[in-house]
Fold this protein.
Amino acid sequence: MKPDLKEEKKLWKQGFKCVVGLDEAGRGPLAGPVVAAAVSIEPNCKILFEGINDSKKLSEKQRDFFYKKLIKNKNIPLGAQVKWGIGIVPEKIIDKINILQATKLAMQKAVEKLEPDYLLLDGNFTINSIVRQKPVVRGDQKVISISCASIIAKVTRDKIMKKMHKKYPQYGFDKHKGYGTELHIKMLKKFGACPIHRKSFRLVYW
């Protein structure tokens, strides 16, 4: 399965001008924020999307390559345009409202940066918005704009966690990005939770 522009093209034909794909990174980790990205592809976009896929199916090197290609698209000839926005919800808010609601909030924040008239969301839920929307299960593997959003969200969050590693080096955030790996759990047992750990997540406290 490879993502394509079928959903976007169908909506463009129906008259929707700003179709936005939404995805997030960071629902599962024990630490750090959840980050969402919103991506709108112009109907006349000339970017070659070959190779773009769900961020989880790409290597870190591939993700970085496509991230730079997407956010610097103004430098690509023939007037290609990809508009995008980022929404970030920190761990303290996640603890207050739960991770699903925090994910929806991050998506709402990302959408605020654009002026969409239709939303395509990865998953099986919708967000609080007056804009028409459609959830797409495994959308990051089917819809190009969602795939692009997954890449931007993932790379953005990884950058945040690499910065957190400098502040809390004992946990190895640069390696696992806050996910519950064997190394991370070992360091949690040794040092306890730090300020960016999600206190509402079961594995954070023993």
Notes: The longest helix spans residues 144-167. Residues 6-163 form a domain with the Nucleotidyltransferase; domain 5 fold (CATH 3.30.420.10). The longest strand covers residues 34-41.
